[in-house]
């Protein structure tokens, strides 16, 4: 990030839009708890664009990156040291919730932050190089079954992460012992896509959002399957679902934001209202579609209830795969 | 000479002995050298290969960023590309934090051993069914908080090329050692052949000798180690020559000693045959009888000498523990009438302790009889013969002291030689064998005999010394 440009934009904004809504937090910041280029980055960028577009946020939303453990490092930083930063929202995904369910976020649980909003949903996807020898998910699974070490499976996150979970569920559906899979972990989907282009892994268990963003950006990759109920609309309509290829697995990925536990009710409400207003705006669908995301509008209590129920569901799933849960 | 046979052991070729002694040493030496070489090679190769692993770890370490507050790891694949080219194998990496939040890379790599901060540890392990070498580094995530979250970086490579390199070096070391052994064996064989060659020449030289050629073998050209052996053989031959000489002389002397009285007797018999007067005949025959007595005595002494010599080598005259003073006293008693016939006296002064020696009583008496006989023969009538027994240390000394004329230096020097009669002008019917017998007997029992003149007055001191077995207060 070029800080000078940011600073220039900020000062210009201050002059152009003097602070009207006095509840708007100063120095708004969106933390993407990963390297740039992954799902968290997309989530923050969506908030950046849409909040500004809808006029809910006057000041520009700064996007910063705090990689580490699919959000674990950022979660610990917020709950530990940055508890009351009203201007800071942090991106989360279903992957964060799965890790929380396994206690991988350290001592903290889903009750330790304030869940602001869900702004959309993504789906798990299987990504390979454009000219990969694996032409379908079925072929890929057959190759893994023949020799588990011959296919290097890349994923954002380690054993137990949602990417691993997608691979493990598919492997189990294919009759493969998921423990024999050759598995390489990355900080996020963005890193995995980079390694995939370099040929260092053979397949990434990524998300539709970040993968399609990379493909749209010219990366020579292709989707083998999407873990959705039905085929997705638009250009994604060509990609078959996993269920079509014989692996009845769905993996929607909720994306959203939380704030620190000591953020005041007023500020929390301000963010929730801002997102609610933004998601109702007519341009929002367009912004979602640009990022290959799908609508899942929820805020505040609804989001909190969703998060709690998801964590409970993930705990059951993790136990089913022999992963430790706390 | 003991004549005892040396314990028989089957002879062996020198080359075999040499091989039996040197080969185990060679094998042990080479094995330990090989083991040492292998260990060194493995350590050197490991340290060389580990260096590049350490380099990869440091490179990943340098690309971990924490400025954002998170943990960012730049993908090391570009780095690995070059690394894999040199290592000719697969490379794996794994970056984790000890709080478990961050796990990037080959998360299924075997966990590192207990690490101390900042140190790179290397160990062998297995990953995906292949042997790998893993380097692991642990360091604090933030230098400001050394006790805080630790980050662990592991880089592993398959050991294929490393093992091939090590095996290549080790097999070269083995080849080198085998060549060294072969060279050593060849040199040893050549050396053994060269060393034994003079011995073969020696054997040929001895084989081609005349049977009666007993001159010493030339030793100058022989190896130093063999010289003592050949010199010992030379000495043995020399002793044989001397003994043959002695025996010849003895035969000469003995036959002369026996022929003379026989010639005298023959003459006397002739005289007697021509004498008419029976008294004259009787007188002549009496004189012949004394000559015959002397011959008988000489013959007896020759036999005694032969027995004493024999007893040195054989057990025909068993040695037993005997009391020395009793033996002396018995001998004096035996000779008492002969001593008294010369109106001489004999005094025996025993030791203060009871002396026991190992000897054959008969032979010892024979020796004492001969010495006392000499004293009776050479000392003037009515003189005194003293016998003194004393013990000094482990030796018992029996001194027979007479009041005769003694001996001159030349006679003392040759006392004990056969047929060396005292040159005393008095007509004495000695054969010269007495002292020779005494000396031979004393030597047979581990002792000796010495002769000297009395220091105080005219007279001879003959001393027989024997080793004491026990000396108990009488």
From TrEMBL, chain A:
It holds the Pfam family TctC. Signal peptide: none annotated. SUPFAM superfamilies: Periplasmic binding protein-like II. It comes from the Bacteria. InterPro entries: BUG, Bug_dom1. CDD domains: PBP2_Bug_TTT. Belongs to the UPF0065 (bug) family. This is Tricarboxylic transport membrane protein.
From TrEMBL, chain B:
Residues 253-470 form the Histidine kinase domain. Residues 193-245 form the HAMP domain. InterPro entries: 2CSK_N, HAMP_dom, HATPase_C_sf, HATPase_dom, His_kinase_dom, HisK_dim/P_dom, HisK_dim/P_sf, Sig_transdc_His_kin-like_C. GO terms for molecular function: protein histidine kinase activity. PROSITE patterns: HAMP, HIS_KIN. It comes from Rhizobium herbae. It catalyses: ATP + protein L-histidine = ADP + protein N-phospho-L-histidine. This is histidine kinase.
